[in-house]
Specification:
Blueprint: H1 4-11, H2 16-24, H3 38-48, H4 50-63, E1 70-71, E2 77-78, H5 81-94, H6 99-103, H7 109-116, H8 122-132, H9 145-157, H10 167-183, H11 187-197, H12 203-211, H13 217-234, H14 243-256
Antiparallel strand pairs: 1-2
């Protein structure tokens, strides 16, 4: 996952008009988005804010960007640029708070949850946690909005460049992650929960993970890695990365994408 810093640094070298030129490039129906990638929309709106939102909305209307993705006969996926545009426009004009209403809409919730992974802030984590409080976790599809939200929380909280949030917010998320693991209908989703629990370390979470006896090797490996990561963060000698160290981690993660 490219970091917010990586996306914004790339956007510094772009002019808003470049988005219009990409949208007008041939290569398929205009409704497919031309040469525009979803990441282009992210870069523009994260860096240019409301001005980018106006441009994105205009291009989406002009070219009739699709609200639903399709799979072509050759197997290629055409992403729903209109839906992504909707999310970016909402964020550009209203910030993270504007995405709460997008999360309330089943058709746009997964897109909003995925977008928030690129907005490294405590407010993003809070909005995602509030959404997760009402998810049942019974869906087996990793594309379900609830699992998209869980994946975004993993990205925001579980790595060395994690977002700093209040202990109370982490305390509210921890039981959600544990409940999601119990309800998860597939091993892959259990792995996702174990990856996410790394970001909410506590003695209770460590004891919970250590008590698990997974039969699936991937789940077992994820459990071991989660225990190791949580013990590292809970150790008295642990020092959180400095802001400069976090910036370097984000740069490296962006370069690895």
């Amino acid at each position: 996952m490219a970091s917010q810093v990586g996306l914004c640094n790339t956007a510094k070298n772009m002019n808003i008009n470049m988005l219009a030129r990409k949208a007008a490039k041939p290569g398929g129906p205009a409704s497919y988005g031309g040469a525009v990638e979803v990441e282009d929309l992210f870069r523009f709106v994260l860096f240019h804010g409301e001005a980018a939102a106006d441009e994105i909305e205009s291009l989406s209307r002009q070219h009739g960007w699709m609200m639903d993705g399709i799979v072509l006969p050759n197997g290629n996926l055409v992403r729903p640029m209109g839906r992504w545009a909707q999310i970016c426009v909402a964020f550009g004009r209203g910030g993270v708070a504007a995405l709460r209403s997008q999360l309330d809409d089943q058709t746009s919730a997964g897109f909003a949850a995925a977008f928030l992974a690129h907005v490294a802030s405590e407010e993003s984590v809070e909005v995602l946690v509030d959404y997760c409080k009402r998810v049942s976790w019974s869906a087996a599809d990793s594309e379900h909005p609830g699992w998209k939200a869980m994946a975004s929380l993993n990205g925001l909280l579980s790595f060395d460049d994690c977002v700093k949030v209040s202990p109370a917010l982490l305390d509210s998320l921890r039981p959600i992650v544990l409940a999601a693991f119990t309800a998860a209908p597939t091993a892959a989703l259990q792995v996702l929960c174990l990856c996410t629990v790394r970001g909410v370390p506590s003695p209770v979470a460590v004891a919970w993970a250590e008590a698990l006896v997974p039969s699936n090797p991937d789940v077992l490996h994820a459990r071991n890695m989660a225990v190791k990561a949580m013990r590292k963060r809970l150790a008295p000698q642990y020092k959180a990365p400095t802001p400069e160290q976090k910036r370097q981690v984000r740069k490296q993660r962006a370069a690895d994408v």
